[in-house]
Specification:
Shape: flat
Distance between the termini: 50 Å
Order of helices and strands: HEEEEH
Number of helices: 2
Strand order of the largest sheet: 1-4
Largest sheet: 2 strands, antiparallel
Number of strands: 4
Helix content: 10-25%
């Protein structure tokens, strides 16, 4: 298994000796699921979901971005008061 890291940011990956072996050596695991069918209402739409499989994967988070939020929500928030 190998990984490629591409970034246009100045955030280096941690030194390999700091990364847990689970992340480096474990392959993803997918197995059949026996979980029951369930329903959910999301933004006014009703969905019926039938689980078919489970998926277990380990990874390393090297940066964080919420893709479902606006840019303003992703920006750091200042907790300083007026005139600080």
């Amino acid at each position: 298994m190998s990984a490629t890291y591409l970034s246009l940011r100045d955030i280096p990956l941690p030194e390999a000796s700091f990364i847990d072996d689970t992340v480096k050596k474990t392959e993803p695991l997918q197995e059949a699921s026996n979980k029951p069918v369930f329903s959910a209402i999301i933004k006014g739409y009703a969905y019926t979901l039938t689980p078919k499989a489970t998926y277990d994967i380990s990874g390393l988070v090297v940066s964080q971005h919420r893709g479902d939020s606006t840019e303003a929500e992703n920006s750091p928030v200042s907790t300083a008061g007026p005139g600080s």
